[in-house]
Fold this protein.
Amino acid sequence: MNLKERALRIKTDIPAVFIALKRKDTPLLPKIIAGITIVYALSPIDLIPDFIPVLGYLDDLIILPALIALTIKFLPEEILQSSRLEAEGLWSNGKPKRWCYAMPIIILWVIVLLIIIKTIVFI
């Protein structure tokens, strides 16, 4: 599989992992790994910030695909296949526009900012 095919596969696998996370018949361990993968994919926080030349983007090119591969490894085959089929249609009209999925990350950032502000004010 060449690089272009892998990139297209990841474009389908990210929403497939999210769909598998929402399914009731997905086992607990893959759900935990899928949750970590989705939070990392949607989070503006990276292990290495993107403003650091080259290294910032290498982190996204290595960690996110590795988390997706790990999640896929633990998912039962029938759940993975049905999730991929469901995910294929999501990208037909561009990126899905569902802002409610970003809300947990926005709430997390607001909490972190409030803690920082509270800490600075009391110092």
Summary: The chain has a mean pLDDT of 80.
